[in-house]
Amino acid sequence: TTKRLETPHRIIMSGSPIQNRLRELWSLFDFIFPGKLGTLPVFEHEFSVPIAIGGYATASAAQIHTAYHCSIILKDLITPYVLRRMKKDVAIQLPEKHEQILFCRMTEYQKEKYLDYLSGRDVRSVLTGNLNMLVAASNLRKICNHPDIFESPEEGEEYGSIERSGKLTVLSKILEGWHSSKNRVLLFTQTTTLLDLIESFVLKRKYPFLRMDGSTAVSKRMALIDRFNMDEEVFIFLLTTKVGGFGINLTGADRVVLYEPDWNPSNDLQARERSWRIGQKREVVIYRLVTRGTIEEKIYHRQIYKQFLSNKVLNDPKQRRFFKAKDMNDLFTYHEEYEGGTETGDLFAGVDVKEVKQRGDDVKPEPTYEAELAEDGDEPERQKKGDASILQSLFESDGLHSTINHDHILQAGETSMDMQVIENEATRIAREAARALRESRRERLQQSVAVPTWTGRSGDAGRPTLGRRFGSGEGRASKILDKIKERNTGAPRQQMDANVELIGKIRDFLVSKGGSAATIDIVNHFKDTVPGKQMVTFKELLKR
């Protein structure tokens, strides 16, 4: 409907231009600049599909190369029309935020129900195409949250017992610790059925609480928000992500629990940001509860993949690939082979992502946040009941399997470069640098030895014949041509000049050594000249 409006100007304000797939970015651009990204079928064929396929760890060299260049071209197409500011770029005055993934164990009762459902009729029907996948996925998620939601439509006296749910057991310990520490909590679920169950648990524990979901009258919602922010006696605010996760400030809380992962990462991202906003004075801690080895962990992986896909187009096409392309069967598999850890920890092994897990009664899990311990006679007592002591008690009670810092996972995507892409680029840069050096030498040799060599500021031999005249400005067309040239060569002009200079130094060094030198001599000579991030390019230059 909006695309049919006759408008002189069009502006879109969005915190998440890509939520699930690249076609969402196309739709936004088709509104503000119709035709900029072509028709949807062409965009999907030429950009969306190649970028998605090349983003998997199992992609071939050709698919990786294609995805990289498609990402670069798409980024160049959209950048002039996107003003993007991350909260971290402007949130200097905000306190720190820490986000942890808590991998919860299933109870034996839960595990039995989960495995029974996996081997049952519904899953078989899904795998044969006779039942919608979301039906079975929804039922498995109910079992992960609490098997009573799946089994018992009518509430009984034992309905919602914490002994039957690993996640509820973990939540019980978390809330107990936060209540003792005078923290205040936002708790998000996706369904009101689950929120009802948690409300019953909160009532039994006599925690002061408020609740807001889709059934809450719109006229009453702002009063609830104001009351929570102002009344420090209210310990916990129970919310659904669709109602409490968008467009409101809940800075009265400094702790957030996302009880279940959403298929759409933007929904969880929006929910967690309700507390970490302007006006927040305290450090914010966010716990995401994920049932280990189940469909929930696979949903979390898809969240991260979607965020990495978004970053590949909006930020850095070179980012590392972590995830493998998997079929629907993987969703309906219980991964017991990761008994010593988690599939998530295995995926991010080798980067700066540490999985903290229980390794035995004599080994304490490494605390995520500093906890102060004091001696009182022979028995240590905790003087500060922070998040480290909460995690410690969770490990000791056997309800928590392991934890991973969510921030580190996202940073791994931002800071870990795809080595195959880097090596391909380094080879191309080195080839271009060698060609440029040969061309420069050829031009210099055309002049007499009595003619000074061009240094960039003076000299005539080898001086570019089409240099910019004094007083002339760089036109838009020249900038566009420069950009095209940079894309074709794989490196900006300044970088290319530096590479040409470096290959010249390598040549001079080898000449000074009689035409050859030992590797150790080359390394020692250039170790202070070549930074670590250019080492791959340096190795390629040596081959030239």
UniProtKB/TrEMBL annotation:
UniProt GO MF annotations: ATP binding; ATP-dependent activity, acting on DNA; hydrolase activity
Protein name: Helicase C-terminal domain-containing protein
UniProt entry keywords in alphabetical sequence: ATP-binding, DNA damage, DNA repair, DNA-binding, Helicase, Hydrolase, Nucleotide-binding, Nucleus
Subcellular location: Nucleus
Gene Ontology annotations of biological process type: transcription-coupled nucleotide-excision repair
Primary location: nucleus
Source taxon at top rank: Eukaryota
InterPro entries named in the record: Helicase_C-like (IPR001650), P-loop_NTPase (IPR027417), SNF2-like_sf (IPR038718), SNF2/RAD54-like_C (IPR049730), SNF2_N (IPR000330), SNF2_RAD54_helicase_repair (IPR050496), WHD_Rad26_CSB-like (IPR058951)
Location of region: Disordered: 358-386
GO cellular component, one term: nucleus
Family: Belongs to the SNF2/RAD54 helicase family.
